[in-house]
Design goal:
- With 167 residues, the chain is an alpha/beta fold.
- It has a single domain, classed as Nuclear Transport Factor 2, Chain: A.
- The protein is built from 5 helices and 7 strands, in the order H-H-H-E-E-H-E-E-E-E-H-E.
- The protein has a 7-stranded mixed beta sheet with strand order 3-4-5-6-1-2-7.
Length: 167
């Protein structure tokens, strides 16, 4: 007979979600290098809110460096996790203070908090695709400046390096 903890881990696959926890920890520790180490050489980091796909470990590192320059006290708290043999889903709560250029906005010194989900496709212990889903409009409203950004008709851009957070 399985204990309650073992049943939950088995049902939700939490024991397999280590890569997702390491992903969140790298962001919260402000460690772009640790984040890039999680990626397969052909891996992709897709930030759906920005409609940008960064390629390879270098692209993931540059994306993180740009985002952390705008939000140097960023914290990603894992709320829930689910994992199978090759996929992981991490629900999270991200919070930070706006201290650098962000999506065309000058630093405001304001804090934001937003819920999101990251879907990880993995192979042999590495991320082959990371897709972040979160509401950029929620962040903009909390920063007290609703500005124009990628429209609903915007096509995803692809970059070898991370997106320019300082357009």
């Amino acid at each position: 007979m399985l204990s309650a903890g073992q049943r939950k881990s088995r049902l939700w696959g939490v024991k397999n979600a280590e890569l997702g926890r390491r992903w969140a920890r790298a962001w919260s520790r402000h460690d772009p290098e640790a984040l890039s180490d999680l990626f397969d050489p052909d891996g992709e980091y897709d930030d759906v809110a920005f409609a940008v796909v960064s390629r390879g470990p270098g692209g993931a590192r540059e994306w993180a460096e740009g985002f952390l320059a705008a939000f140097p006290d960023l914290v990603v708290d894992v709320v829930a996790e689910f994992a199978t043999d090759g996929d992981e889903v991490v629900e999270w709560l991200m919070s930070a203070t706006h201290l650098g250029q962000f999506d065309g906005l000058s630093p405001s010194g304001r804090r934001f908090q937003v819920r999101g989900v990251t879907v990880l496709r993995t192979r042999e212990g590495r991320i082959v695709r990371c897709s972040d889903y979160w509401d950029l409009g929620t962040v903009r409203r909390q920063l007290d400046r609703l500005t124009s950004g990628p429209s609903a008709s915007a096509k995803p851009r692809s970059r070898a390096a991370g997106p320019a957070l300082n357009p």
